[in-house]
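Lecture 7, part B: from sequences to assemblies.

Below are the input chains for today's worked example.
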Amino acid sequence: MTSLLTVKSLCVGFPGKRGVLPAVEDLDFHIAPGETLAIVGESGSGKSTAALSIPGLLSRSSRPVVSGSVRFEGQEMLNMPDRKLARMRGPDVGMIFQDPSTSLNPVFTIGRQICEPLRTHMGLDARAAEARAIELLELVKVSAPEQRLAQYPHNLSGGMRQRVMIAIALACSPRLLIADEPTTALDVTVQAQVLRLISGLQKSLGMAVLLITHDLGVVWETADRVIVMYAGRKVEEGPVRRILSQPSHPYTEGLLRAARKEGRDGFLTEIPGVVPPPHQRPPGCAFEPRCARAIAACRAAVPAIRSTGPGQVAACIRAEEGQPA
Amino acid sequence: MAFSIPPFLQFMFRRVLQIIPVVIAIAALNFLLLSLAPGDAADVISANNGGASAEEVQALRESLGLDRPMIVQFFSYMGGVLTLDLGQSYVRGMPVLDLVMSRVPATLLLMVTSLALAVLAGILLGILSSTRYGSLLDRVMSIISLLLYSTPHFWLALMMIVFFSVHLGLLPSGNIATIGGDFSFLGRVWDVFVHLILPAVTMAMFYIAVYMRLMRSSMLEVLDLDYITAARARGASEKKIAYSHAARNALLPVVTLAGVQIGHALGGSVLIETVFGWPGLGRLVYESLLERDTNTLMGILVVSSVLVIVVSLCIDLVCGLLDPRIVHK
Amino acid sequence: MSRSSDFLRRLFSSWTTALGAVLLFIIVVAAIFGPIVYTVDPFEMLGRPAQLPSARFPLGTDVSGRDILAGILNGARVSLIVGLAASLGATLIGIVIGALSGYFGGLIDDTLMRITDFFLTVPNFVLLLVIVSVFTSTIEVITLAIAFVSWPSVARLVRSEFASHASREYVHACRGLGMSHMEIMGRQILPNVMAPIIVVSSLMVASAILTEAGLSFLGLSDPDIVSWGYMIGVGRTVLRSAWWMAAIPGVMIVLAVLAINLVGEGLNDALNPRMRQR
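Predicted structure of the full complex, as C-alpha cells:
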C-alpha cells in the first residue's frame, strides 16, 4: 500500500505558565494518493493544530513544540529548513482556511495573490501567471474572472473569497489539499456549493484531501475515511460507512446521536460536560468524566488503540462491550 | 444638468475647509491670551524702545486701536486673521505674514527630510526587529530605541555638534548655508545638504525610535494574522512575507501616527532650529520670544497650525494609497 | 495582600523595569535629600569658572564659577516636581473632558472632541512658548501651561474607555438603581478604566520633564530656580571649550526620563496584560 502522507506519533504542545500544554498527543494516520480523509472533533480537540503542523504553519508567536514524524512521499517534513519547506507549500501541499474573510491579504489584489504561487513555484512571468490565474478562477467557477484580478478581497462575497482561496491552493496542482473547516464561515447555501467544488476538483485532479471539520454531514458526503479526535488524541478511525453505522467509541456514538437530532445546531447536547482543557486532562481516558459507560479501569491509563472491525480502530477498553449504534 | 464631483476631490475640499474653524479657534485663543496677559502691545513697544511717558504710551495705545472696547478689538483681530492679515511685527516693522512665510521653506525642508528619514529608518528597523523577535538584536534595538526616546533632542543636537563639528570637524555646526559662500547652483545645493545633515539626523533620531517601536509591535500583531499563515501556505518566503505581505499592512498605524505627530515635530523644530541656527519658523519663534514680539508669535501659531493640517491631509492621501479599504467619503 | 504582592511580582518580572525603578529611586532620593545634605547654593559663584571635576567641586564649575553638582541636585527637584504636577494636571483635565465626552456622547462628545482635535493640531510646544511668554515665567505658570497643552492624549484615551463602558450592562444596572451620572462616572466606571490612564499619565511625567527642559533651555524658566535645561543652556555658550558642562545635566535628563519610561512600560505590562507589547 502506498501512502502519500504518513504521520507518526505526532505531538504538538504550546508553552504555558505551567509548562508545555499538549494540544495534540501521539497522533498516527496516513493518507493514500487521491483519498479523502476527514478529521472530526469538537473545538479544542486538536484537529486544526494537527492539520496546521503538517506543513509547518502553526503560529510562531505561540512557540509550538512539535515532535514525531510527518513524511510526505517518504520525506520528513518536521524540522525541515524554512526554505525547503516553503518550496513544498503549494506544489506538494495546498491549504484552505476556515475564514476566507481573514485569509486573503486585504491590501493586495486578488490577481496578485493568485499569481504569487504561480510565479514563485512555477517560474511563470507576469503575463503567463495572469492567464493561468484566469483559468484557475474559471475552474473554481468565479464569474467574470478577468475583472476579479484587479479587485480587492473586500469587493467579493464570502463564498467568492473562499473560491479564490481554493484557486490559490490549487494554483500549483498540489497532491495533498488540507482543508481546515472550509465551509464553517460560509452561508448554508454556499457551503454545499463549495464542498461540491472541492470534491469535483479532487476527482478531476486526482489529489488527496485532508478535511478538518466538526460537521458529520460534511464527512458523510465527502470523505472515504474518518478520524475522530477528542482532547488531543485519536479515539477512533475507520471507513466512513463503518464509523457512521457501527461506531465503537462511546464518544463517536454521542457525536452521531447528536448529529441525528434535527433542528439542533449545538451538536453535542447529547453528551453532558465539555472537552477538558489541556491542563486539566485526566491521567486515564480523557472522555471518562463524560462517558456513561465508564468504569474504574478507565481512569487508570490512557486506553490503547485497538482494532474493532475491518479497517476500524478505537481507543476504548470497553469497545467490544459497546452496543453498535 | 447633473455632474458629479469625484469623491476624492470632495474629500480634499472638505479637508481644506476644515482649516477655517481651526484658524478661527487659534485667533480666538490668541486674543484670549493677549487680553489675559499683564500689559498690552503699547507697553511692550514702549518698553522695547527704552521706556516712554504715560502720555506717549496712551497715544500709542490709541493709534493701535487698543483703547477700543474688547469686543470691537476681537472682531477687528478676527477679521484681520481671516483676510490673511496677521498684523504688523512692531519689532521688525514688517507684516507678520510676510515675515512668517519667508521662514516656512527652511522649516519644511528640515521637517520633510527628517520625518522621511525617520519613517524610512523606523519602518526598516521595526521590521528587522519583529522578524528577529526575542533575539539579542531585537533586545539591543529595543534598549537603544528607548534610550533615544528618552533623550532631549536639543541636548542630543549639542552633543552631535561637539562630536561631528568640534571634535571631528566633519560637518558645519549651524546655519543653512555657508555665509558669503560663492557657489555654482549645484555647489549651493550641496552646501545646503551638508548643513542639513546634522539638524535633520538629530531631529529624526527621536522619531526613528518612536516609529521603530510602533512598527515592531504592529508587525508582531500582523504576523499572527490568518492571511500571513495563508501566504506562508502558498510558499511565500519569509523575507517576502515580512517585507511585503506584513509590512504593507503594518505600515498604516505608523503613517497615521506620523500624521498626528506633525504638530509635535513642528514644536520640536523650535529647539533644533535654535541650536543649529536654522533660519526657519522655529528659529523665528525663539527670536520673537527674545524680542517680545507677540504679534509674530501668534502669527506663527496660525501659520504652523495650517501647515499641520496641510501635511496631515497629504498623509491621509498616503493612507488611502496604502489601504484600498479606505474610501475617502 | 497576595494580590498586591502578585502585582509587584509581575511589575518587576523584567529586569528593565527593575532597573528603571532603581534609577528612579536614586533620583528621587537625590532630589529630596540632595540639597539638604549638600548645602552648597547653586547660584553662588564659588570659584574659578569652567573647572573640571575636583575634590572641591565633584562635577566642576560652570561659566560663572557655580557648583554644577549643587545645580544638578536642585535641578532634580524642579524636574520631578514639574513633571509630576504637570502630568497630574493634564491627567485631571483629560479625565474630565474624556469622561464627559465618552459617557454622554452626542453633541457634548462632538464639541469636546473638536476642542481636543484643535489642541492636537496646534503645535503644542509653540503654543506653550506663546503662553509662557505672555505670562510671567514662574514655575507655577510653566507647570500649568505644560498641563494645558498635554491633556488631549489622556482625553482621547479616557473617552474611548468611557464610551465602551457606558453601554455595558453594569452601567445600565446602576442607572436602573437611580444613581446619578456623576456617581456612575466617578465611582463605577472610573475605577474600571484607571489602569490604562495610570500608564499614560506615568509616561507623561517623562514627556513633561523633557518639555520643561526645553523651555528652560530656551531661557524661559523661572529665573529664581536652577533646572537641568537651564544648565544645558548655560553650558551651550562654552560648548566648544567645555562640552561636559552641557553634557552632565543632559545625562541626568536622559537617566530620569529613561527611568520613568522603563517603569511606565513595566506598569503597562503589569496592569494591561492584554496590551502587552511583546
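Note for the exam: Chain B has two domains: 7-82, 103-328. Keep this in mind when comparing with the next example.
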